[in-house]
Amino acid sequence: MSTREETDKIVDLIEQVNKLIHMKHHELASKNNLSLDQFHLLVHLKKRKKDNQNPTIGDIAKRSNRAQNTISERVTRLEERGLLRRIKDENDRRISRVAMTEEGVKLLDSINYQASKKFIFKALSKIEHEITDGLLNGLEQLVDKLQDKKGDIHD
Which of 43, 59, 79, 119 could hold 55 in an S-S bridge, CB 3.0 to 4.6 Å? Predict the structure, then answer.
């Protein structure tokens, strides 16, 4: 197999792994009684929480290309489950911001853990140790070469 064919195959396999993990996230969200839109809203809010930014309903509506009343209803349902809360803006009390609760963070962390680490652990535990060692070594080298700014990889 040529290097180009190997490259195509590796990229395809990485995409398949990512797709399977993504599908596992959706499966677990559904098992936790979350619609895909609710799940994606929680994912978005967790990213914003890391940046210490609690968006408004309008911000979320713009980003998701949905009507504000649709987002407001979604937030209300998640708020009723204790996963989100509305917070009055410190500078303008007319504005409400949306934030995840600790319960929401815990649920999302649990889904992420189960869909990635636990899911992959179960699969890897069914593969011979020498093969997983080789996979790990190969992936480490690939990351190293992709990060190497001296070569012509970034061209």
Answer: 59
